[in-house]
Amino acid sequence: MIADHSANQTKAQPELVALFVSDTHLNTTLPLTTAAFLSFLDKQATQAKSLYLLGDLFEYWVGDDNINDSYNLPIVQALRKVRDHGVQLYWIAGNRDFLIGADFSAATGAILLNDPSVIDLAGKKIVLSHGDAQCTDDHAYMKFRAQVRQAEWQTTFLAMPLEQRKKIIEGLRTESKMEQKQKSVAIMDVNADAIAALFLQTGSSTMIHGHTHRPAIHTNNGQTRHVLPDWDCDCDDQTKRGGWLAAYSDGNIQAYNWDGNLK
């Protein structure tokens, strides 16, 4: 009699289909955060089929003519290395780096997606967004967002000298930080009706977004909303934060910390 060893065979592990990350806010003042993100690209991102960058990868982006900046270039090259490894790379603009354009896409190999975008992944219809467009209670920000997303405004801004653009962005960042101190957390979070409308509009049952810096999993009426964390590894060890979501071929979506450990 031939023994049946099938019961003892190891069950096949689900395949890593996609990774999702946002709000790293990379800049020269965050060297440890930058190193952690570059490590993520090298060790984790290269193991996936797809990597989705959902906005605010950079603290600010003044235009694609700044790609060769001594800080920006290594990050662009690291993203290109992931793409050259065979990983599909996708990008959705955030409120900090919405001026990412065709030259950045060509340099990194990233496909620029609209916000929102819907993907089919492991049997799930998932809507992806940065998340700021759903913060409709913040009327001042929504007005600003509408202005700077206009093609005419962007053309005028990008025609300015690079150093002038940097000074303008720095001023906007300072102003934004002051305004945030005067706003409630609720106002800066997504609006429930805007989220419900996005689910309805796209016919999705799963949503992934960032922006709010309030990582969580929200479930309601068969719908699941995953909120990505922001990153900061330049603070003390107890308050370091960051991470990503991993989607597997069995439909499971798992959250990981910045250091690669399960949440």
Overview of this structure, please?
With 263 residues, the protein is of the alpha/beta class. It has one domain (15-257): Metallo-dependent phosphatases (Purple Acid Phosphatase, chain A, domain 2). It is 33% helix and 19% strand. It contains 8 helices and 11 strands. It has helices spanning 31-43, 72-84, 102-108, 139-148, 151-158, 162-181, 185-188, 192-202, and strands at 16-21, 50-53, 88-91, 111-112, 117-121, 124-128, 206-209, 216-220, 223-227, 243-248, 253-257. A 6-stranded mixed beta sheet has the order 4-3-2-1-10-11, covered by helices on one side. Strands 5-6-7-9-8 form a 5-stranded mixed beta sheet, covered by helices on one side.
Mean pLDDT: 93
Total number of beta strands: 11
* Rough outline: globular
Order of helices and strands: EHEHEHEEEHHHHHEEEEE
How many helical stretches? 8
The CATH topology turns out to be Purple Acid Phosphatase, chain A, domain 2
Element layout with pairings:
Elements: E1 16-21, H1 31-43, E2 50-53, H2 72-84, E3 88-91, H3 102-108, E4 111-112, E5 117-121, E6 124-128, H4 139-148, H5 151-158, H6 162-181, H7 185-188, H8 192-202, E7 206-209, E8 216-220, E9 223-227, E10 243-248, E11 253-257
Parallel strand pairs: 1-2, 2-3, 3-4, 6-7, 7-9
Antiparallel strand pairs: 1-10, 5-6, 8-9, 10-11
List the keywords.
single chain, 263 residues, alpha/beta, Purple Acid Phosphatase, chain A, domain 2, 5-stranded mixed sheet, 8 helices, globular
